[in-house]
Specification:
Elements lengths: L1 H12 L5 H42 L3 E5 L9 H8 L4 E16 L2 E10 L3 H4 L22 E5 H7 L9 E6 L13 E12 L3 H4 L2 E5 H8 L7 E6 L5 H12 L3 E5 H4 L1 H39 L1 H9 L4 H37 L22 H35 L4
Parallel strand pairs: 3-7, 4-6
Antiparallel strand pairs: 1-8, 1-9, 2-3, 2-5, 2-8, 4-7, 5-6
Length: about 425
């Protein structure tokens, strides 16, 4: 093993009679370096984006959500709620009621989701940390009058100002039957005063309006019905065990979702994109590895005389193959090491200084997020080195077999 590695290193760094072999070897190392570096950087950026998106969603989504499997609303069972309160891993929960509605402010109209929430809602989610300017998540004024907290997208479209002078009108279709054929009576209209504006992410900001749950029930003609129970856990690592206990309490009639399942489509798309980018860059590395095949092919042809001498000195076919396999693999090893170092340095600089900025006015992140993970620095070199080994093994197996068989028939040259 040591002899084959030693000779392989001499062949790699020694000057060849044909300068093209040195050039092709250098290009091979550069190709593997760039491919490895790109893989590390892209995967680290995806890690950062996934963390950023999770942070955004966690501001709005609870740790666990309980909803009815069939239908839109349900009435919570008091016995189930008592059992829920006995689960040690739960910090708080909140009742919510959600429905589409038409909003009118002045002469502007907008369709949004009204979400009625109780007083515990700010303890279950991080909505209070996303309020704009000096606004607070307050759904009732000091005198008990209900207020509405709007997403900044909804507020901008309607031209809403946070004051208790101009009311915001909410229209929803009546649930109960009405014999009156007047179209105006087909809708329930109530007004409420804007009390705050939040900013999380464009999808949420342009969709949601928070109001007190009792006001929402009155508007939607419900008594005690809710759309979901949203739960906050003491420690999210306990989610599987807490979820099993919640499922035992509520049974199959209800759907329990964790953070991932509440945004399942988005996370699946993101992970599919990550996997697709990984395979695309891996394909580029495979193409770059064809330079290794060319370099080894030319080297084996040039070292035909050395092969004959080694055979005369007693080297077997296995040793000769190992020499050229290690020669090709060393190209991949040096390229991989250089790519990992450069990729790490670029990610560290971006993580520390944020040199590459996002073309966005978002207050959450001004530059591309980067998160360096150990698993990427394991998966990437293993993948690249396997490709490099294949690129070295194939030409060596084919060409050395050809020359060794020829030498065995003709004997060494004098």
């Amino acid at each position: 093993m040591r002899l084959s590695v030693y000779i392989a290193k001499r062949y790699l760094f020694a000057k060849k009679s044909r300068n093209a072999i040195n050039i092709i070897s250098a290009v091979s190392v550069a190709g593997v370096t760039v491919g490895t570096m790109a893989l590390v950087i892209i995967l680290s950026v995806f890690n950062g984006l996934e963390g950023l998106v999770s942070k955004i969603f966690n501001t709005f989504d609870p740790d666990l959500s309980i909803s009815i499997a069939e239908g839109k609303v349900f009435t919570p069972d008091s016995a189930s709620m008592v059992k829920l309160s006995e689960i040690s891993g739960i910090t708080a929960w909140s009742f919510t009621l959600e429905e589409n509605a038409l909003l009118k402010y002045g002469d502007r109209q907008y369709i949004a989701n009204i979400k009625g929430v109780d007083d515990n809602y700010s303890e279950v989610t991080g909505i209070d940390s996303s309020m704009c300017d000096e606004n607070e998540f307050i759904l009732r004024s000091p005198n008990g009058r209900p207020g509405a907290v709007l997403g900044i997208g909804v507020a901008n479209y309607l031209g809403v100002n946070v004051n208790f002078i101009n009311p915001l009108f909410i229209y929803v279709p009546r649930r109960t039957e009405s014999n009156n054929i007047n179209p105006e009576n087909a809708f329930i209209r109530k007004y409420i005063f804007p009390s705050g504006i939040f900013e999380i992410e464009q999808e949420f900001d342009s969709k949601y309006l928070f109001i007190p749950i009792d006001f929402c029930r009155e508007l939607l003609e419900y008594e005690k019905e809710i759309s979901s129970i949203e739960i906050k856990l003491k420690d999210y690592t306990q989610e599987p065990s807490v979820r099993r206990e919640v499922e035992k309490i509520f049974g199959k009639r209800y759907i329990i979702k964790n953070r991932y399942e509440q945004q399942e489509i988005f996370y699946k798309v993101m992970r599919s994109e990550r996997l697709a980018i990984f395979f695309i860059l891996t394909l580029i590395i495979i193409i770059a590895s064809f330079n290794i095949i060319g370099s080894l092919t030319m080297l084996i042809i040039e070292k035909e005389r050395d092969i004959e001498i080694l055979k005369s000195l007693g080297a077997d076919n296995n040793l000769i193959r190992k020499i050229f396999i290690f020669e090709g693999w060393l190209i991949s090893i040096f390229g991989t090491m250089a790519g990992l170092i450069l990729g790490f340095l670029i990610c560290w600089v971006q993580q520390r200084f944020g040199l590459i900025k996002l073309n966005s006015e978002s207050l959450i992140m001004q530059s591309y997020p980067v998160v360096i993970k150990l698993k990427d620095f394991i998966v990437v070199p293993v993948t690249v080195l396997l490709i490099g080994y294949w690129a070295a093994w194939y030409p060596v197996r084919f060409l050395t077999k050809k020359y060794l068989l020829k030498n065995e028939k003709t004997g060494p040259k004098n």
